[in-house]
Amino acid sequence: MNPTDIRCVVPSRLAAGEPFSIKVKLLGPVRKIDSSGNFCDRKPALRSQFNLNVSRKIQYHDNCLPEWKGRLAVDSGAALAGPKHIEFDGIRQGVFPGDVRPIKCFDGFTINSPGFHFIRLIDEVSGIESWSNPIHVTAETPDYRIYWGDPHWQTFFSDGIRCPEELYAFARDEGFLDFGAISDHMEAVTDRQWDYFQTVTNDYNMPGRFATLIGQEWTNHNRAVGAPGHRNIYYRGNGGPPLRSNDPDCDTLAKLWHKLDSLQDIEAIAIPHHSANVTMGVDWEQGWNRQYEKAVEIHSVWGSSEKHRDDGNPMPIGALKGEIRGRHVIDALKKGYQLSFVGGGDIHDGRPGDHLHNESYPPKPDRSWPSGYTAACTTTLSRNAVFDAIKNHQTYATTQSRIYLDVKFRDQNGKQRIEIKTASEDGITETAIVMNGKDIQTLHPDAEKRVIIRDDLTVPMAPGDFCYIRITTEKTNMAWSSPHWK
After folding, report:
1. No. of H helices and E strands in the chain?
2. Domain coordinates of the chain in residue numbers?
3. Of 140, 290, 374, 447, whose CB neighbour count within 10 A is largest?
């Protein structure tokens, strides 16, 4: 069977001559993987007893070829040094014992000239070809790296599928993520299960390779207490207490904040998400906690909560009665809530970093959008570095695409000068400058659609104003820089 597509992932920022790897996965028809397994099958595995959630009708699917051997041509022009072909031999491939699917990491590459570069892989038999995400190469060591993650997954312990070990392994080895976190609904999780969650999360934390955060979801859309909405709570270190909205001492936002205030030597971040939803959204009138609420999840499989569909949102929330005005991200920003942007999956299908569907396959229209990514801009890949990137507003959000986005604001004669570097293998159709919730300027690319570099843009900003950049690609993927505040 020939591949239908090739997934190719490379680092987003490198120094000239710095060695790097290419992560490759060959795709084929989507196939259902039944919920089955032997009592002695060790996890992770493709076949699992946890591949089906009957009540939510969620079935695990795979989109990788079951097996394949052959070679792919590698091309990126004269700047790329390394093998001209990479090979799958049908044996030394896959991600767990006995797995022979064509998933593999190939070493031995360098790029020797600064600028933006893309890697092209070609199956010379079928003619299928694919481009990697953009690499920005600098002459010296980059002042920061971009690490890609999804900090929002559910397991079979609440309302998803697959067990914690399976999700972490998938995120690292098949989703090709740099960091991630299980954030299950704690109302369904016992204290002993929480101990197990934390242990697995710590076991999979491997600085320099894959970083994990201790995460949980406080789930409260109870109208009796004002429907405060959901918050994902992340601890900096190796653990912390469970927080449940069905516990009497933690059933309101005020009690949640009090509980976090009472923790000794444990630092926490709280991230609201799918804020615009009618049923499970966030009531911004209940206030903003400056100490804990550092970011908002602007996009997930629910869709985008940036703004209302009638205001130009191409991915509005459609599930559970859809969206409601007053709860969008721009509504919180207009209130002065200084929230940076992250993207997440909120996936329930067992596939963090490579979402296929939410509650059914094929997806229901307007109900299962691409999952989101968080781009953490930091110097190292570690749990503390990712936590600090979120805490210090050093993130940006995308849909399921590694769009390169570097935005800097500088004071210039009473105005803000904006410097933008952005790139996507999809091709960029639009770059919007958003100030105080309105698109004040829209840039369209010239002949070079994959890369846009501008340093000649200025906007007037008064105290209290906010401004961010939104990118849209030819495949309708999107990216949002975190807001800049005057």
Report:
1. 5, 33
2. 5-138, 145-402, 403-486
3. 374
Q: Which fold has domain 403-486?
A: Immunoglobulin-like (2.60.40)
| Residue 347 to residue 358: CA distance in whole angstroms | 7
Backbone φ and ψ of 259, nearest 5°: -65, -45
5 DSSP assignment: E
**Residue 68 CB neighbours (<10 A):** 18
d(CA 217, CA 220): 9
Phi, psi of 391 (to 5 degrees): -65, -40
Which one of 3.30.1490.20, 2.60.40.10, 4.10.240.10, 1.10.287.3510 gives the CATH number of domain 5-138? 2.60.40.10
Taking the C-alpha atoms of residue 282 and residue 64, their distance in angstroms, rounded to an integer, is 37
At residue 21, the pLDDT reads 98
Which residues have CB under 8 Å from 354's CB, separation 6+? Answer: 7, 63, 170, 174, 175, 176, 400
Q: What is the mean pLDDT of residues 75-103?
A: 95
Q: Is beta strand 179-182 parallel, antiparallel or unpaired with respect to 145-153? A: parallel
- Which residue type does 337 have? Y
- Give the model's pLDDT for residue 360: 47
Residue 325 has pLDDT above 70, yes or no: yes
Q: Can you give the pLDDT at residue 405?
A: 98
Q: Is 257 helix (H, G, I), strand (E, B) or coil?
A: helix
> Which pair of tokens denotes residue 38?
């032997």
Give the Cα separation of 383 and 235 in Å (integer): 10
The matching CATH number, chosen from 3.20.20.140, 3.40.50.10840, 3.30.9.10, 3.10.50.30, for 145-402 is 3.20.20.140
Q: How far apart are CA 42 and CA 407, in angstroms?
A: 45
Q: How far apart are CA 415 and CA 81, in angstroms?
A: 43
- Phi, then psi, of 111 in degrees rounded to 5: -120, 130
| 14 vs 110: CA distance, rounded Å | 9
pLDDT in tens, 65-88: 999 999 999 999 899 999 999 999
Backbone angles phi, psi at 103, to 5 degrees: -130, 125
**Do residues 477 and 400 touch, judged by C-beta distance below 8 A?**
yes
Measured between alpha carbons, how far is 377 from 409 in angstroms, rounded to an integer?
16
Half-sphere exposure of 291 (CA within 13 A, CB side): 7
* Structural contact between residues 305 and 437, judged by C-beta atoms closer than 8 angstroms: no
pTM over the 0.85 mark: yes
Same fold, 5-138 and 403-486: yes
